[in-house]
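User: I'm putting together a teaching handout on how sequence relates to shape, and I'd like one worked example. Could you take Co-chaperone from Linderina macrospora, show the sequence you're using, and then write out its predicted structure as tokens right after it?

Assistant: Happy to. First the sequence, then the structure tokens directly below it.
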Amino acid sequence: MGDWRNIGNWHWKEKNCFDWAKKHFEETLPQVEVTKGEFAANVDSVTSVTGDVDLNIRKGRLITIYDVEVKLAWTATRGSETLTGKITIPEVAHDTESDEYVYEITAENMKSDLLPLKDFVRTTLTPAITKRLEKFTEELKAANGSEMYIPEKDGGSGASTPTVNAELARDFKQGK
């Protein structure tokens, strides 16, 4: 029989996963880097994460509900030229499709000869960030989901299994 508090993990249960998510973004997003020809760009750091990240269980299913704003610092180079800036992603949400992400990109220096570096960030780095963000829901579930389920006490069948006395079983096999 399952735990009396939430038999079969049927009832709503939630866990705040914001701290895990913030750390996860800080560890994984700075790994995003792209190169193409003489251009290169990368995420230097995550400067801010705000919002809500919850993992829920209802009727035995894991449900993610999150909506966060993520701010990043970036660097782009072309030969000896370097440009730095910030990216704000105002909404990374559980119901946002990957083609709906909005990126607000700013650069520290807007000299006209450095504009191709900002354009490279917009056209090449942001799609790589999107690709990384697409993995977030599954990573959230994998890292925190096991804490949400209440295991069945009988191994998960939902029915109690009678124990068999070894002596009775032997007698039955022998036809007694």
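A couple of points you could highlight for students: Residues 115-133 form the longest helix (19 residues). Confidence is low (pLDDT under 50) at residues 154-165.
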